[in-house]
Amino acid sequence: MLAKMIDKIVSLKETKIFEIDGHTYADRELNIVRPPKPKPASINFHSLDAIVKMVRAELEQAGKRLFICVERHNRVTVFSTYDDECERWSLYSAEADAPGLPSGWREIDKALIELRSLCIPGEGGNKLIALLSNVNFDDGMEVRDNGVGQEVKVKSGVSLNQMAKIEPRVELRPFRTFLEVAQPASEFIVRVDKTNGVGIFEADGGVWKLEAKQNIVKYLTNALEDLVEQGNVVVMQ
User: Fold this and answer.
1) CB distance 91 to 101 below 8 Å
2) Among 132, 134, 98, which residue's Cα sits nearest to residue 115?
3) CB under 8 A, 24+ apart: contacts of 126-129
4) How far apart (Å, rounded) are the C-alpha atoms in residues 191 and 91?
5) pLDDT for 121-150, tens place per residue?
6) How many angstroms separate the CA atoms of 93 and 82, rounded?
7) How many CA atoms lie within 13 A of 97 on its CB side?
8) Does the CA dihedral 7-8-11-12 come out positive or negative?
9) 99: Cβ–Cβ under 8 A, 6 or more apart, which residues?
C-alpha cells in the first residue's frame, strides 16, 4: 500500500507534455538553467562629465552600441544593447548633486541665504533680495494683501518707513540639475506673512524639468558627437 502511494506521488511530480492543434503544452512551467555569466556591476556618478569619460573609455568592452537615457532632470542612465541571449547590461548612472530651492515657508533671514546660495544671480532674485533685506520689523511687520499682490513696510532712510510692492511672481534660477548644463529659469510665487515669514512656491508646473532634460541631451550629444554620428552611442530622453 505504501509503495503504491509513493509511486502515485512520483507520477504526480512528473511533467506531462500534450500536443494540441499542432502546439506543444506542458502541465507545469519549465525554466532554462543557465550557467553563470560574468557581467559588469553598475556604477553611480554625480556628473555628466564622468558619464562621458566612462563611455569613451569602455565602449569597446561594453558592446557595439550604448544607450544613454535622460530619465529625469537630475538622473541619467547608460545601458548596453541586448546580447545573444537578449539581455542588456545596466552600466552607469549619474544623479545630480543639486540642492534646488524647496517650496514652502521660511524665516526671512533663511530666505535671504537661500536666494543667495541656492540660485544663480538674476534680476528677479536681486529685486526680491533687496526688498526682503529692508523689511521693517521695528514696529511689527505691516502687510497689505489684495488677493493678487502684496505690499510690506520697508525701511527708507534712517527712520522713515514706506510700503513697497512685492511682485506676486518672480523668475528665479535655482541649482536643480547637473552643473555642466544651464540651470533653467522658472517662475515662483512669493508671499510674505507676519507669522510664517516668506513663502516661495514653484509656479510653472514643472515645465523647467523638460528644459533641463533637453539641456542634458544637448550636452551629451555634443560631448559624444563622433560616437553619436557613428551610431555607437544613442542619446535619448
Assistant:
1) no
2) 132
3) 127/167, 127/170, 128/166, 128/167, 128/170, 128/190
4) 45
5) 999 999 888 888 777 655 555 544 444 445
6) 18
7) 4
8) negative
9) 118, 174, 175
Return the amino acid letter for 179.
L
pLDDT digits (tens, 9 = 90+) for 54-112: 999 999 888 779 999 999 999 999 999 887 777 888 999 999 999 999 999 999 889 99
Residue 188 to residue 202: CA distance in whole angstroms? 5
Determine how many CB atoms are found less than 10 A away from the CB of residue 54.
18
- Contacts from 130-134 at CB under 8 Å and sequence distance 24+? 131/164, 131/166, 132/108, 132/198, 134/164
Task: Report if pTM > 0.85.
Answer: no
First-to-last C-alpha distance (Å) of the chain: 67
CA distance 14 to 92: 44
